[in-house]
Amino acid sequence: MPSLMRALRLPQNDPLAIIGVTIYVVFLLVALFADVLASDPFEILFTEDGNLAANLPPSLAYPLGTTNLGRDIFSQLVIGTRSAFLVGLTAAGAVVALGTIVGLVSGYFGGLTDQILMRLADIALGIPFLPFVIVLAAFLGPQTQNVVLAITVLLWPNTARVIRSQVLTLRERGFVEAARVAGSSDLRIIRVHIAPNIMPLSLLYGSIAIGWAILTEASISFLGFGPSDSISWGGMLQDAYASQALSRGSYYWFIPPGLCIVLVVVAGFFISRGYEEILFPKLKD
Amino acid sequence: MRSVAIRFAQMLLVLWAVATILFFLFRLMPGDPTLAYIDTTFTAEQQEELMRQFGLDRSLAEQYLLYFANVIQGEFGTSFRSKRPVFTIIFEVLPNTLALTVLSITIAYIFGVLVGAWLAWRRGSIAEAVGIPLVLTLRAAPEFWLGMVLLAIFAFGLGWLPSGGANSAGMQFSSTFDRLTSPDFLRHLILPAATLALYLQGLPLLLMRSNMLDVLQEDYVMMARMKGLPEWRILLLHAARNALLPVVTAFALGLGASVGGNVVVETVFSWPGLGRVLVDAVASSDYPLAQGAFMFIALILIVMNFVADLLYTVLDPRVSHG
Questions:
Q1: Does any domain span residue A274?
Q2: Residue A138: which CATH number?
Q3: Is residue A220 in some structural domain?
Q4: Whose CA is closest to A85, among A284, A265, A277?
Q5: B157 Cβ partners below 8 Å, 6+ apart?
Q6: I need a surface site. Which of A132, B65, B209, B216 has the fewest CB within 10 A?
């Protein structure tokens, strides 16, 4: 664990950050070994006397009971880990990569480039987030990559704006000036002198973006615009909602997927606070 | 004054850009472009009328110009399903959305500001060690799931509150105001508003707390301490006032964003609002209605972004926009 914290550049004595990283590690292991832990989530189960095993409460055979169509809820929960990570990691990676590049270019070069990029950021922030994702998912088709695309197109400005303002101050610092006088190219200055200094900031926004992406994907699936061929936590919740699990009081069906979303998203928040402590140490004492 | 004019121009630019994106977005969908406005169930006269109004038989450039002329006049066409003007439908549900949003965000910000200031004051205490992770956990919970849990407990489990809608079936009211202030409406409002407030309180709380921590280090707070003022006076009259500024801006931003973000809460509670109209319209391929609802949500968001920008400059004279 300590070496993992070091690799992620996190403070090693921050309890919340350690909890966050632990949650991620556990869920990543579950996602990797999902096939071993779960049986086929689409399989329709029958009881020994040949009846459909629908709406069964938790038991040894089905730790979280079964759905109204006789499917094993525990298996769905385990397999759902995969789509959560798939969406969370790809969308966060794309958001941070785009945001960081735009922020670097905008802050370093300034002028007209900066003006255009920042107006684009204004426009992206003027588009209502969930409605846009819904419309895009509905028109382009309910595939995971379209949800990721919509998240990326709208969420990069937050990262870009913060990175930009950080680059603006870095640009004026002595070591950058020195590199420029020594004849370093722009690309080299950005790569060697500026980019390493904004790494923790990018990681901070990345750890928050994972959470946003997972929440967004869950909302889209809940509204019925998510990928229908795979199992996701949001999809499970929609299933439970649509088949009256609430009025039947089937808590074992709709509580676990929600808790899993909360755990993964809050892990990102905990980790992001670890980065904040590095970036803004005055709050620490 | 000049900076206000620049901000206003930027707002118009964003409005234009978003409307343009919407125009092309609704031509992305599969099939015949006239589908954006015309449904086969319309009568021949209706179809012809819409063809003319939106120039659907003309070039893309002409359609684009007509689209803007129509948008500015609030003309979004006719809903495929209900065969009524989109504008009328939107104005019917707008009060529901506004009532829900304004009430829950107000509760969330009052609670968040008070608790945030208190947690800053109790820095390093057990209250902080428990409170911060708890707030972060609530913020991590999907809104629709919070709503589902509340529904299962209070509507289905205990039977205290209605499970959906904004009014009981068969209720008659003489005016919108009567309806929005009736006990029946307020009873329906409790659960969705509680859900939204629970979700929204985290941001003002954390923001207020970190601002307070910053402000408490300022010289004028030190000065007040040295004068021997009581702690509550320092906290409320000297520190909280200044720590509140960024929260006011966040309130305006949050109000704009929440109208669009209500989509899921309105769906969980079958709340007849703008967000649910959008979801239903998209799901049933009612394109004119979807387009109109989207444009309205965007309009509210963009105007509130502008208001937040202005508030920021007005409240904190140190900030000036170039």
A1: yes
A2: 1.10.3720.10
A3: yes
A4: A265
A5: A249
A6: B65
Q: Looking at the partner chain, which of B17, B141, B260 has a beta carbon nearest the beta carbon of A131?
A: B260
Residue found under tokens 């590095």 = A278
Domain count for chain A: 1
CB neighbours (10 Å) of residue A23? 18
Task: Give the domain extent around A273.
Answer: 73-283
Contacts of A127 in chain B (CB under 8 A): 18, 21, 298, 301
Residues of B whose CB is below 8 A from A211:
140
Sequential pLDDT tens for chain A (285 residues): 667 776 676 777 778 888 888 898 898 888 888 777 767 777 676 666 767 666 777 776 667 677 777 677 777 887 888 888 888 889 999 999 999 999 999 988 888 999 999 989 988 888 888 888 888 888 887 788 888 888 899 889 988 988 888 888 888 888 888 888 888 888 888 888 888 888 878 888 887 888 888 888 888 888 888 777 778 888 888 888 888 777 777 787 888 888 999 999 898 888 888 777 777 665 444
Q: How far apart are CA A46 and CA B16, in angstroms?
A: 57
Residue for token pair 């689409």: A42
CA distance B157 to B159: 6
Distance (Å, rounded) from C-alpha A211 to C-alpha A190? 29
* Distance of alpha carbon B161 from alpha carbon B187, whole angstroms: 7
Among A102, A41, A47, which residue's Cα sits nearest to residue A77? Answer: A41
3-state secondary structure of A66: strand
Specify the pLDDT at position A11: 72
| Nearest Cβ partner for A246 among B29, B156, B213 | B156
Residue of A nearest to B134 (CA): A266
Are B232 and B137 contacting, i.e. CB atoms less than 8 angstroms apart? Answer: no
Tokens, residue B5: 């004019």
Q: Which of A114, A119, A132, A136 to mutate to test the interface with B (most CBs of B within 10 A)?
A: A132
* Among the partner residues B28, B152, B257, nearest to A249 by beta-carbon distance: B152
Structure tokens at A243: 């088949």
C-alpha A99/C-alpha A198 separation (Å) is 12
Q: In this structure, are residues A214 and A84 in contact, taking their beta carbons and an 8 Å threshold?
A: yes
Tokens read off for B227: 């004068």
Listed by number, the residues of chain B in 179-238 with a beta carbon closer than 8 Å to a beta carbon of chain A are: 210, 213, 217
Q: Which amino acid is at B32?
A: D
The band of B181, judged by pLDDT with boundaries at 50, 70 and 90, is confident
* ipTM of this complex: 0.83
Amino acid identity for residue A162 in this structure: V
Instruction: Determine whether the interchain pair A135/B152 forms a contact, defined as Cβ–Cβ distance below 8 Å.
Output: no
Instruction: Label residues B109-121 b or e (16+ Cβ within 10 Å = b).
Output: bebbbebbbbbbb
d(CA B165, CA B269): 6
Which of A18, A219, A196, A207 lies closest to A132, judged by CA? A219
Rounded to the nearest 10 degrees, the angle between the axes of helix A73-109 and helix A144-171 is: 30
One-letter amino acid identity for B177?
A: F
